[in-house]
């Protein structure tokens, strides 16, 4: 029995010993809640662990970052234990170190290799029986984007012309003592020249730093662990910085001679530019102060200063600018001290800004005014270039002087043209009609306005001297083949050169063409000779055919510029009262003019062309006067039947006229030739003229072209009382006889012609 008890006690002691050994070997790590309360230091944000997916990663406990606080060699003697937990779903679970992925090596936790499921927060706990401290570290797993991915990198600054040694991080903390390191620069491994760069003992040696050595340097570490080949990659980016000796900051602006111009009432900007040398990644300070107080101390919203702006970065030596905004700038600010200051660990600099009030210059107003003036001047210049004729005519109509009030002349225009040409038709049908009827000018035409029996030369000189303008119609110098036209031009040129009383105006009716005819060359030479001295002062107006027919064409505008000024007549209050008297006086002047023309003629020719001709007042008056003069004075009458449509007379005067007149018939084309029966019979009825007198045998006057001129000439040459007396005496044969005697004494023949 005693033996059984001993055996039972021995077995019991053995089981207790085995339980103690098992409890010692397989002691479960205590939870964070067991033992004393842990001091939580939060999450270590200064350094975040980032590894590539599929590579090994090392999580270092931040508690040992400060050796004076915690040292891994010392905690073992004080009974401290380092435990690792993982924060998942708001719970702290211990890291299963039995898995091959997690390896605890001294003060770090290795994850080999890391996957996306390993991301999260890891907690390291340092505790003993009396104290407990914990801190969290974040792990970020980044997918690799290629062999040359430099997403995970560190930046280091290396002074130029200095040496530097690159060490691959965490190599000395590898759980394996055997490893291999390969260095790359810009993804190239054959960059070593062994003169300025070389690899020794897995370290990259840079003997002299140059600016082209900057960029990413990548180290790839390969090692063995638990029978697996693992690797991890680290990238270090080098940046070259200045190696200058001067390390004190310096302010460039404001300088001694710098003056800041400000405007009271407007926003002001004061710029401070400074030079900040590189100083071990130290951030210098640049600030503005007003009356030795910073903007934070003033707390006035009118003053603001945005962040420092880097103007230039030369390998770490920076040129920066800081703006002080004053919104708005007041009068009192002119008496304040605005100071810019800069400071780093090596020195301090400060400058005061000199302010000057800006004198207001209305540059915008001046610019706008000048621009508007230039635009208006340009617009006026363009308008003048386009409408210069209208501008001149408008100016003449407003400010021009009417020459009729000063020179005492009777005619505005004397027209000189070649007879029996197209120019004569142009003058009679177009030029004379427009000038007299449309523009109100007094026109003088020698063939129309000259009295029968006078001397041609004397009357021509008188007409030219009594006219304000001499209008010469040119058409290949054809006007100078006519002796009368040449005389008119010579008279006008002489009057113009003597005193300028007559001004010449040339109208180019047709373009001059050259010819080989000698006679024409002589005439052209004569034309040039007559106008050579006056050519400089002469004005030439070109007739352009159909383009010049309109009264608003350039031809008529240019012609009006050369003619005398005509101011529009002013309307008076008694105009309506005197209108009837004027019409009556006009009718009396017309009757006197018709009677005087007929009394001065040896033959009266009446052209019969229609049945209703006698309804016109002038023709009816002429027919009655023809019959009256034939009955009282015995003046021969001649009627020319131009058309055969007249069967019965339409009035009593025409019946009496046909009864006592010699009738000559016009037979159309058969009568056009000068040797036809029509012209022979007509010449038999006209006065006899010998051939020695020349080609212009008989002078004639027409009721349609010369009545107004006769009335005007009679008004200037005879008193009004004499006209009334002569009109009474014209009723008897004595008047006709005396007038006929006067006409015969001149030695010229005159025919009064009218047509119905």
From TrEMBL:
<feature type="domain" description="TIR">
    <location>
        <begin position="409"/>
        <end position="563"/>
    </location>
</feature>
<dbReference type="InterPro" id="IPR013151">
    <property type="entry name" value="Immunoglobulin_dom"/>
</dbReference>
<dbReference type="InterPro" id="IPR007110">
    <property type="entry name" value="Ig-like_dom"/>
</dbReference>
<dbReference type="InterPro" id="IPR036179">
    <property type="entry name" value="Ig-like_dom_sf"/>
</dbReference>
<feature type="signal peptide">
    <location>
        <begin position="1"/>
        <end position="23"/>
    </location>
</feature>
<keyword id="KW-0378">Hydrolase</keyword>
<dbReference type="InterPro" id="IPR015621">
    <property type="entry name" value="IL-1_rcpt_fam"/>
</dbReference>
<keyword id="KW-0677">Repeat</keyword>
<feature type="domain" description="Ig-like">
    <location>
        <begin position="143"/>
        <end position="237"/>
    </location>
</feature>
<dbReference type="Pfam" id="PF01582">
    <property type="entry name" value="TIR"/>
</dbReference>
<keyword id="KW-0393">Immunoglobulin domain</keyword>
<dbReference type="InterPro" id="IPR000157">
    <property type="entry name" value="TIR_dom"/>
</dbReference>
<keyword id="KW-0325">Glycoprotein</keyword>
<feature type="domain" description="Ig-like">
    <location>
        <begin position="254"/>
        <end position="356"/>
    </location>
</feature>
<dbReference type="GO" id="GO:0004908">
    <property type="term" value="F:interleukin-1 receptor activity"/>
</dbReference>
<dbReference type="InterPro" id="IPR013783">
    <property type="entry name" value="Ig-like_fold"/>
</dbReference>
<dbReference type="GO" id="GO:0016787">
    <property type="term" value="F:hydrolase activity"/>
</dbReference>
<keyword id="KW-0472">Membrane</keyword>
<dbReference type="Pfam" id="PF00047">
    <property type="entry name" value="ig"/>
</dbReference>
<keyword id="KW-0812">Transmembrane</keyword>
<feature type="transmembrane region" description="Helical">
    <location>
        <begin position="369"/>
        <end position="388"/>
    </location>
</feature>
<dbReference type="InterPro" id="IPR004074">
    <property type="entry name" value="IL-1_rcpt_I/II-typ"/>
</dbReference>
<keyword id="KW-0520">NAD</keyword>
<dbReference type="InterPro" id="IPR003599">
    <property type="entry name" value="Ig_sub"/>
</dbReference>
<keyword id="KW-1015">Disulfide bond</keyword>
<protein>
    <recommendedName>
        <fullName>Interleukin-1 receptor accessory protein</fullName>
    </recommendedName>
</protein>
<comment type="similarity">
    <text>Belongs to the interleukin-1 receptor family.</text>
</comment>
<keyword id="KW-0732">Signal</keyword>
<dbReference type="InterPro" id="IPR035897">
    <property type="entry name" value="Toll_tir_struct_dom_sf"/>
</dbReference>
<keyword id="KW-1133">Transmembrane helix</keyword>
<feature type="domain" description="Ig-like">
    <location>
        <begin position="30"/>
        <end position="136"/>
    </location>
</feature>
């Amino acid at each position: 029995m005693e033996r059984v008890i001993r055996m039972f006690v021995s077995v019991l002691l053995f089981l207790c010993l085995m339980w103690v050994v098992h409890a010692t070997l397989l002691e479960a790590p205590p939870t964070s809640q067991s033992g004393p309360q842990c001091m939580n230091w939060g999450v270590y944000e200064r350094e975040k662990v980032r590894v590539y997916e599929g590579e090994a990663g090392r999580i270092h406990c931040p508690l040992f970052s400060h050796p004076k606080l915690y040292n891994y060699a010392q905690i073992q003697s004080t009974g401290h234990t380092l435990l690792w937990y993982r924060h998942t779903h708001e719970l702290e679970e211990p890291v299963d170190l039995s898995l091959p992925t997690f390896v605890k090596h001294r003060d770090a936790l290795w994850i080999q290799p890391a996957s996306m499921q390993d991301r999260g927060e890891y907690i390291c706990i340092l505790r003993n029986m009396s104290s407990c401290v914990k801190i969290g570290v974040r792990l970020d797993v980044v997918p690799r984007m290629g062999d040359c991915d430099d997403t995970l990198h560190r930046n280091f600054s290396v002074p130029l012309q200095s040496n530097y040694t690159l060490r691959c991080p965490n190599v000395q903390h590898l759980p394996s003592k055997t490893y291999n390191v390969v260095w790359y620069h810009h993804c190239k491994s054959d960059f070593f020249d062994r003169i300025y760069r070389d690899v020794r003992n897995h370290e990259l040696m840079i003997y002299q730093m140059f600016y082209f050595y900057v960029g990413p340097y990548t180290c790839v570490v390969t090692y063995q662990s638990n029978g697996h080949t693992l690797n991890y990659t680290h990238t270090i980016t080098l940046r070259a910085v200045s190696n200058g000796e001067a390390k004190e900051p310096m302010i460039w602006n404001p300088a001694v001679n710098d003056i800041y111009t400000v405007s009271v009432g407007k926003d002001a900007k004061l710029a401070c530019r400074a030079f900040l040398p590189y100083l071990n990644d130290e951030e210098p300070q640049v600030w503005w102060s007003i009356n030795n107080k910073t903007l934070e101390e003033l707390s006035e919203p009118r003053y603001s200063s945005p962040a420092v702006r880097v103007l230039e970065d030369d390998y770490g030596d920076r040129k920066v600018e800081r703006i002080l905004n004053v919104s708005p700038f007041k009068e009192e600010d002119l008496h304040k001290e605005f100071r810019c200051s800069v400071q780093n660990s090596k020195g301090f600099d400060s400058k005061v800004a000199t302010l000057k009030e800006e004198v207001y210059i209305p540059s915008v107003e001046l610019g706008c005014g000048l621009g508007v003036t230039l635009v208006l001047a340009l617009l006026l210049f363009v308008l003048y270039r386009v409408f210069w004729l209208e501008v001149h005519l408008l100016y003449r109509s407003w400010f021009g002087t009417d020459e009729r009030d000063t020179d005492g002349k009777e005619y505005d225009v004397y027209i000189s043209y070649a007879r029996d040409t197209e120019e004569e038709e142009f003058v009679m049908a177009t030029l004379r009609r427009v000038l007299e009827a449309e523009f109100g000018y007094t026109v003088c035409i020698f063939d129309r306005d000259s009295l029968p029996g006078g001397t041609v030369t004397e009357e021509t000189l008188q007409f030219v001297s009594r006219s304000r303008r001499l209008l010469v119609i040119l058409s290949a110098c054809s006007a100078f083949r006519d002796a009368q036209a040449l005389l008119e031009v010579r008279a006008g040129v002489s009057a113009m050169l003597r005193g300028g009383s007559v001004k010449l105006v040339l109208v180019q009716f047709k373009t001059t063409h050259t010819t080989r005819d000698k006679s024409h060359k002589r005439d052209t030479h004569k034309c040039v000779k007559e106008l050579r001295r006056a050519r400089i002062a002469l004005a030439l107006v070109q007739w352009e055919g159909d383009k010049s027919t309109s009264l608003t064409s350039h031809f008529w505008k240019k012609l009006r510029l050369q003619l005398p000024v005509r101011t529009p007549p002013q309307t008076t209050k008694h105009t309506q009262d005197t209108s009837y008297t004027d019409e009556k006086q006009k009718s009396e002047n017309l009757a006197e003019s018709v009677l005087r023309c007929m009394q001065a003629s040896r033959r009266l020719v009446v052209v019969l062309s229609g049945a209703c001709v006698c309804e016109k007042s002038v023709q009816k008056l002429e027919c009655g006067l023809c019959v009256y003069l034939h009955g009282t004075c015995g003046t021969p009458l001649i009627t020319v039947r131009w058309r055969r449509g007249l069967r019965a007379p339409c009035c009593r005067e025409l019946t009496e006229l046909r009864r006592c007149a010699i009738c000559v018939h016009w037979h159309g084309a058969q009568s056009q030739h000068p040797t036809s029966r029509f012209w022979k019979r007509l010449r038999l009825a006209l006065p006899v003229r010998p051939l020695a007198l020349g080609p212009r045998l008989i002078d004639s006057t027409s009721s349609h072209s010369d009545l107004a001129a006769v009335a005007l000439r009679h008004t200037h040459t005879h008193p009004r009382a004499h006209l009334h007396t002569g009109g009474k005496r014209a009723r008897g044969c004595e008047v006709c006889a005396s007038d006929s005697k006067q006409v015969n004494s001149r030695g010229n023949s005159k025919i009064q012609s009218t047509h119905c």
